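User: Can you help me understand a structure? I only have the sequence.
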Amino acid sequence: MSDVSPESKSDSTTTEGVSFTERTGEVMNKVNETLGKIDWTQMGKYGKAAGIIAVVILAQVLIKVIIDTINFFPVLPGLLELLGVVVLGQWSWENLTTSEKRTAVFDKVQNLKKEYLG
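Assistant: Let's start by predicting it. Here is the structure, written out as tokens:
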């Protein structure tokens, strides 16, 4: 499959094994030089952006795994849907039965709208 004979492979690995620490040292020196040239005062905003992107990707992967696991069991999605309907009904009963409660909910929504949308 390859043009290199087995004898030359063993010779190259022993040669690389001997100079591995030297090569590692050279690579680390180059990395340190490169990191020394970076203006770290500007890295805050890039680090935050990269961190936010990493957290969003991780959260999406975890949510997908959890949803796939729930969907694996045939009864759970129906039970969770029923639970959602029950919670919505309970919240509606507590907050929308009288006109005073409906007005309070409407005022809360308007205040949140003003606070977040301006």
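Now, to help you interpret it: The first helix runs from residue 6 to 18. Helices lie at 6-18, 20-37, 43-72, 76-96, 99-117. Let me know which part you'd like to focus on.
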